[in-house]
Amino acid sequence: MADFLKQEIKFLPGVGPKRAELLNRELAVSTFEDLLYYFPYRYVDRSKFTTVRELNAEMQYVQLKGKIVNIETVGERQGKRLIAYFSDDTGVIELVFFQGIKWIKESLKLENTEYIVFGKPSIFNNKINIIHPEIEEAAKQEKKIGSPLQPLYSTTERLKNSFLNSKAVYKLITTLVQSIKTPIAETLPESLIKEYRLLPVHDALVNIHFPGNWDLLQKAQYRLKFEELFYSQLNILKLKKRRITVSNGYVFSKVGDYFNNFYKNNLPFELTNAQKNVIREIRKDLGSGKQMNRLLQGDVGSGKTLVAMMCMLIALDNGYQSCLMVPTEILATQHYNTFVKFLQGLDIHVELLTGSTKKRDRNRIHELLQNGGLHILIGTHALIEDTVQFKNLGFAVIDEQHRFGVAQRAKLWSKSDTAPHVLVMTATPIPRTLQMTAYGDLDVSVINELPPGRKPIETKHYTDALRLKVFGEIRNEIKKGRQVYVVYPLIKESEKMDYKYLEDGVESFLRAFPPPGYVISVVHGQQKNKNKDFSMELFVSGKAHILIATTVIEVGVDVPNATMMVIESAERFGLSQLHQLRGRVGRGAEKSVCILMTKDELGNDTKKRMRTLCETNDGFIIAEVDLELRGPGDIEGTQQSGMPCDLKIANLARDGQLIQYVRGIADKLLDDDPMLEKPENILLKKKLHGMKKDMTNWGDIS
Ligand code: ADP
Ligand code: MG
């Protein structure tokens, strides 16, 4: 039986080589098994009928019962179509056919034949119609037995063009299921099936495609979600447990002079309680003898960088070097300056290494790194080049981790025999369900508190019609001595996308805010580094009133005197990205404002994004809404995380409770049988082994 399901899809009757290639390319279906696991996205209850009077174009699939009262062919050539006027007791609508006109015309019977029509209503010339409905004589359909729940399968434009629509996929799956001779082998241990009252896999797979009734459908869905989430949790937890039991870490046993002197003499403010707690958590990890692998989440401005720096001092107290890797040069430079300022007088050697570091400096840094003269290295991707060798890297920090791929992080490891302790910091809060899945192997710390005195950012949504008002507000802010960011999604005009762009924006801002009264600085990714640095410096030093930029300023840039941000074509950005962007303001003691500019007409999702931002400053709420609107595949970081987020049936936005539940089950099972060696767990071990190979090293990476 196992071999039966492993057959190539082209051998299924009705498929053949051409369709097989399409199915493979469009739906990643290449075997019988893949097809069997291609689940419907929706079900329509075919026992329910709608009346013509109730119809509106917003409805999904509907089913009607009535008669054809007239047929006519209209239009010429491409526009030629057949219109069948369909009536029930409540009204008449048009059924429209562009293809197969001759055949349909001959087969449809007028007069007293009752038909069942199934399709999606649309609107044309203010009248409701249904284009290419399924239509069948009522008498014939009622004779058919089987489930009233009809599955719908999503297919692509390409597939539809080759006549592989939902109905055709359904047919193929019917053929497949009918040729299954012996029950499909169970994929979960009997013990779990019994204890959690799950449907056997065979029944679940049959009912997911051919539900006997709603109740069985629900049971089938539950069983398949359970299995999917259970295996992903088992996999993640097993990796995590292996890291904890097997991989050794450096032991940082003491807190010494570097840390203590900094704390006593250099720290200009009280740490927040959240910061203290996180430092305590990390300290415990560092002394445990196990390699730390921790994710530090905290909203923008919550003081993560400072926490990371203080932990580096612990590393230094124990004789080890540290590094901080960030995604952009601007950010690296800024962090470097912050570190130098904070660590003044402590005799700590910090250096900056980026793509534009001069050869001479580079060589000097390489040498200092190897002889131990350099304590803390800050930089971009340049840090992971092969030529960069540490004497003893003990602690690595990665800021804004969603921009680094797993492979890049892994390279940091190869820099010492024992993997350094790793702290990954992100300001993009990761929803709980993602923490348990894509990031399930990391320990998580949270800074859920902003330093005192911060005022929440007031966010407003204006449409382009209010531009003059926005200019007025900017002028007021500058009059108060403050500075303003203006952010554009594009540098140049795009033919494909109707968004505001920076080049045009610079012109209109220069007109509205002319020199010499106003100074405008411009930063974007296509500038030479020299120019970028110069423009940035102009703004950081307070000489420029307005900084016009692209999202290069998204992460980390810290100018406390900037209290207003205007985001142009805000509809272009995702929710988390907008939140991240506006985090550039609200960094000083003054109240800050963020203005989201959009065009007038917006889709519902965009409206919801704008509303959410205006209503809350809580990054976690925003992350949850983002996940709900976009689905996990699009959330930054999941693609690179190397974990299987392409769940087939479970949904990270909706199945949070089930994830939590199966995580508990997997955890208990592994506590009881860590290597999965008990006879009842052999199946689990085998399945895990077969799961994606490319993720087996994940536990060692981040
Ligand atoms: P994050 O990296 O989380 O965005 P930073 O570490 O850059 O935050 O901190 C943002 C700003 O707040 C910095 O200017 C930093 O010096 C300051 N800061 C950090 N912790 C505190 C604190 N406990 N009290 C006051 N200010 C703080
Ligand atoms: Mg930061």
Tell me what the structure shows.
- It is a single chain.
- A hairpin with a 2-residue loop joins strand 6 and strand 7.
- Residues about 635-645 and about 695-700 have low confidence and may be disordered.
- The strands form 4 sheets. A 7-stranded mixed β-sheet has the order 6-7-4-3-2-5-8. A 7-stranded parallel β-sheet has the order 12-13-11-14-15-10-16, with helices on both faces. The protein has a 6-stranded parallel β-sheet with strand order 17-22-21-18-20-19, with helices on both faces.
- It has 27 helices and 22 strands.
- With about 700 residues, it is α/β, with parallel strands linked by helices.
- Helix 9 (about 200-210) crosses helix 10 (about 215-245), helix 11 crosses helix 13 and helix 22 (about 605-615) runs antiparallel to helix 23.
- It folds into 4 domains: about 1-45 and about 150-180, Orthogonal Bundle (DNA polymerase, domain 1), CATH 1.10.150; about 55-145, OB fold (Dihydrolipoamide Acetyltransferase, E2P), CATH 2.40.50; about 255-445, Rossmann fold, CATH 3.40.50; about 460-615, 3-Layer(aba) Sandwich (Rossmann fold).
- The two termini are about 40 Å apart.
- The longest helix has about 35 residues, at about 215-245.
- It binds adenosine-5'-diphosphate and magnesium ion.
- The site of magnesium ion (MG) has 4 residues, from helix 13.
Class by SSE composition: alpha/beta
Number of helices: 27
Q: What would CATH call the class of the largest domain?
A: Alpha Beta
Write down how many β-strands occur, each being a DSSP E stretch of 2 or more residues: 22
Q: Globular, elongated, flat, extended or rod-shaped: what is the shape?
A: globular
Instruction: Bin the strand percentage.
Output: 15-25%
Number of domains: 4
